[in-house]
Amino acid sequence: MTIPSVASLDSLDQYLRTIKVFPVLTAEEEYDYATRLKKDGDLEAARALIVSHLRLVASIARGYAGYGLPQSDLIQEGNIGLMKAVKRFDPDRGVRLVSFAMHWIKAEMNEFIVRNWRLVKTATTKAQRKLFFNLRSMKQSFDTLSADEVQHIAKELNVKPEEVMEMEYRLNGQEISLDAHIDDDGDESFSPIAYLEDESPEPAQHLENVQTEQRQSSGLSKALMSLDERSRRVVEARWLNENATSTLHDLAAEFNVSAERIRQIEQKAMQKIKSIMTAELEH
Length: 283
Fold this sequence. Notes:
The protein has 14 helices and no strands. It is an all-alpha fold.
C-alpha cells in the first residue's frame, strides 16, 4: 500500500480524513518497526512509521497557516521531513519518533517558506527584529489594526507605532526580503530568516548531550559512593556543596589532621572519581 498524498486525493479534506484512519503506534510497535527498518531495510516497516505520523505533519502545518501558503503544499513538504526523520531514526536511543521527527518536519516547512514567499525589506532597524514574526499572532483579527492595537503591539515589541503600521502594510500586500540589508546609516538590519531557522540542536545531538549528562551524573554518584566517609566529606565540602568554601585548614581542624594530609586525601579521592567517571562514559 502506498503512502497517501494530498495530490493523490481529490481535496485536502479528503486527505485529512484518510490519514485519521491510520492508528497511532504504541512504543513497542514503533520500536519493532524501527528496528526492522534499521537492521533489514524493511520498507513496509518504514511505511508503517510514516503513515502513523501523518497527522503530526498536518498538525504542525496548521501552525504555519499565517504565511498565506497552501496547507496542502506545507503538508507535502512536512511529509518529506517526516520521511527523512524515519530514515535517520535510531530506536535504541530511547526517544520516541514523534519527538525526533518534529525537527525535520519543521525544517522542511521553513525551507519551503523561504523558497516561496519573497519578502522585501522586512526589518529596517534592529529594534524590529521580532516584529515580522510576532505581528500575526498578536493581531486579534484579519482587519486593519486599530490605533489602540498599534500602540499595544508597539509597546510589547519595543518598536515605534509607525513601524507596526508600516509592517502591517507590507505584510498585507507588499513583497519584502527575508535577507538582511544595509540601511541609510550603514547599519545592517536583522534578517528575519534567522527566525525561520531552527537553531536548536538536532534531536540526535540533543539526545546524545542528555545521555552524556546522565552518564556523568551516574558516574559521579557511583564514584562518591565508592569513597570512604572522610574522603567523601572532603570532596563534597571542597567542590560539591552549593557554597563550597571550606579550606584545607578548615577540614584539617575538623578531622584533627594536618592541612597537607587533607590535600593528599582530596587528591587521591579526585583521581578515583575521575577514573570511575571515565569508565562510566566509555561504557
